[in-house]
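chain below, 556 aa
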Amino acid sequence: MTRMDRREFVRAGAAVGLTSLSGIKGLPWWETPDLVLRGGTVFDGTGAPGVEADVAVVGDRIQAIGRVPEQGAMEIDLTGQAVAPGFIDIHTHADRPLLDVPMARHRVLQGITLEVGGQCGGSPGPSSEAAAQAARERYRKRYGVEVDLRELGGFFRALEEIPPTVNAASMVGHGTVRGLIVGNENRPATPHELAEMRRLVAGAMAQGAVGFSTGLEYTPSGFAPKEELVELAKALRGTGFPYASHMRNEDDGVLAAVEEALHVGRVAGVPVQISHLKAQGERNWWKAPVILDLLEEAREAGVDVHFDRYPYVAYSTGLSNLFPAAARAGGSGAFVGRLQDPEERPALEAYCRDKIAQLGSWDSVQISSTRRAENAWMRGKRLGEVARELREDPFDLTVRLLVEEGGSVGMIGFGMSEENTALMLSHPLGMICSDGSVYSPSSSGSPHPRSFGTFPRVLGHYVRDEGVMPLETAIHKMTGMSAKKIQLVDRGVLRPGAYADLVAFDPATVGDGATFAEPRRPPTGISLVVVNGAVTVREGGLTGERAGRPVRGAGA
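prediction:
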């Protein structure tokens, strides 16, 4: 790869999507740069191959890409490293937790510069008056600022008062809206309730939401018939924002669940984004290619469908999800009561044991979190392992643990195949996500390593070591492709005038340090992260900058 002067680079840039800044109003290329990244191989996020070039930054925007003769106020030599748009986590639960852990250390260290939250039906707003008041008191005491989460727009305003290291966008969650209007009841919404929910969804879109999400394996979202989903998704019609669905089933009923998601998009007339797509349980692994065929056929028929997926063969959820949604109706107290009801136990046991059979065995379930100190020793251990240590039937242990913990126990389920994981990550319709969150350095538990290592794992394990796709393709799936799905024009790409969200890494050493045994280990090979023009990570460590912002959708 040879170095080009500015004129040669601009000519080449026409083919690869990199252009000079000539003619862009307000950002003259001759202005003295605040930051110049020298000599890296620049991947622009469009899927084009990398080109050796300099990147100049003025303020929060990219000023020029090419041969930059001007000296910057700060100069960083990136010779031998890849330079890409900052990674966009298109499906994350790092939304409201950013207000509690704004440094988001393990998120920005892996190159994430934009979190897209509000997923799986849960969003930071709208909230009930009581919940909003509790949040108001919490953040007033902690930061001395006023936070109002009665509406989703209040979350965006809170991010301006409590800036994190990363940018944040959010969808509006169906479960949040349904819980506010219908409650945790297993019944259809009345016409009045449906109208109220649609009003809330439309209001959140007007405040900057970038989509509408469902969590149909969870309560109360899972109590909604598909007609309700269609009606609420219609609030997005004409906006271009997606209906993002954690589907009703991801194992034995996954094909029907895919059809339902496509039906909602087709009838509502909106794009579709299937969340963390998988065929869970060995007896369902054969369905993965069938699912991908269904998605391709839907696209050919006019449905704008994509999916997201994380680079692991295990998922993370609550232990309560080993039981049917109907058993969880009415909240945790009602669920715990049903677990202890002798009349309900036989049906619940049969359902739970079948779920375990799908996964393979009780050793396919790892306990990730508990609340009670006396159960802390179980964190990070397999359920079967704990049962053997205690000489207790694993189902009895599951019930006892849920009862003791008030229904709240975290689990990691090892249910997917490596072959299908690689297939989905590399598929043209797939984007990369973590499905992770933000954790305080002092927090307990043994969380899924995806929160700490997703993006470096794709670049190191799947791209460099396994060769499942070219580097430029993987970068596109983490940046430009995700930005386009939620209609962001000036993020997810490297071009003059775009926001200066960038990551630099060594393709030879980048990788995930996090494992299921040691999930909090940092990644390797990521040397630099720039967020809105501010150097936030340098030489693998935090600089202390917190330049993240709310990223509102075009409807705001």
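The radius of gyration is 23 Å. The chain is about 35% helix and 15% strand.
thats it, cya
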